[in-house]
Structure formats: structure tokens, C-alpha cells
User: What shape does this take?
Amino acid sequence: MVPEERVLFDNGNHKNILLEDFGHGEMVQANVHFIVDNGKGMILDPGGHKVFKHLFGEVGSIIGVKNLEYIFLSHQDPDIVAAINGWLMTTNAAALAPHLWLRFIPHFGVDMFVIDRIKPVEDEGTIVKLGNSELYILPAHFMHSPGNLQVYDPVSKILYSGDLGASLGQDYLYVENFEEHTKYLERFHQRYIPTNKVLKSWLKMVRELDIETIAPQHGAIMKGKDIVNKFFDWLEDLECGIDIMEDVYKLPTKYFEG
Ligand code: FE
Assistant: This one.
């Protein structure tokens, strides 16, 4: 049984589940999301080897491994892709990955006879059928990866925002007070998002969507239109990356101390 707080949406046929966080120790906290429609599943950003066997068990108990149709890879980072070979070897699922990173992902070690099941998604995104539902794969480039994708699910009205909206250090699963929450968002976004112009361009696209919940790959989930809009307004004005780091390009003067 999935604990109630990890069920983001459930109408009987369509479910959105936050799988248990099996990552510990030095691994950055990561959310692995799971979308199920009429018994067919898509797992999002399933991470590395240490969590693979646990997640594989979870998927098996929720829908049966043979019903996993898609493995969504939002970008090329190890906390997203590292265990992709295991997933491809043990399921029949297709992996969806940004075209930009397709030739880099095999460096994680992908066997020849499963490599064709990693399918490229072009820069403009696409629409994927899962069960009787349709999922929008959105362009989210430069947030943070130059080839970054996100998933919008119109049934649950959840935007799976990947690293955007990531928060580190809070001890809650759902954001209650957005103003209080910004301290956990700020450093990550200022350092990982290259410039505010990216945020503004992306906001123009997502403001057209009906979004109830933003579910990032790290940290707390933003539920309710009020919090979603506050987050969008906060991003609109956020100076980040090169906006505030132009001064960093200076020759170093300090010796490495280990
Ligand atoms: Fe990343």
C-alpha cells in the first residue's frame, strides 16, 4: 500500500504516486514520480543503482513490471539516468530522453541490445499516450540542463518540473507557506538556472496550462493554484546565473587545500 501522503492524485483509473525515497547518505534527496493510467505506467527520473532494485520492486507491486511503458529522463544527470541499463534490461519499457543527450547517455553503460529503446525527444517536446491519457513532454531547456524536458499531466493537472522548483534542506513534503519556503529554493535556482530570461520564456508557455500541483525532482511539492502562482511570480523576478555571477570569471589566486 502506498501511504496516502505519497498519492498526489487518484481518480480510480489514473494515479500519480511519489515513490518512496530510497536514497540515503551522500546522495542528494531525489523524488521519483510514477504516473499510472489504466494499469500502464511511466516512471520519471528513476536515478541510480542504489535505488534501482527498490524502485523496481515498487513498480512491480503497483502495476506489474511488464506494464511499465515509459521511463522518462528529463536530462542527462546521474541522479536521473545512472541506472538506465538496469531498467532497460529488466523491463520492456521505452526510455524517453532529450535528443541532445542521446549520445552521452551510453557512457553510463548501456548494453547494445537495449540501446534502441532509448528514444529521442526533439527540442520542441511531444505528446505521449499512456493508457487512455496523454502526457505532454514540454521543452524546459536551460532549466538547468541545455536539453531539459518536463512532463505535464492534464488529468491530474500536475507539472513534473524536474530540477525547477527543487528545494533542499526542508523537512516537509508539501509546501504550506511559500514565503517561508523560498529560502530552500533560492540558492539552488540562483546557481543552476543560467539567467532570468530562460525563466520568463518558460513561464509564458506554462502559464497557458491548468496546473494544480508542481512536483519537482528534489524537495517539497507545491500543491494548490495559490502556491503554484506564487512560485511562478517568484521565478519571474528571480535574478540567477550570469545575472548575478558575472564577477566569477577571474583567474584563481588560492592554492587547492583538499
Ligand atoms: Fe540535474
Q: What stands out?
A: The two ends are 46 Å apart (CA to CA).
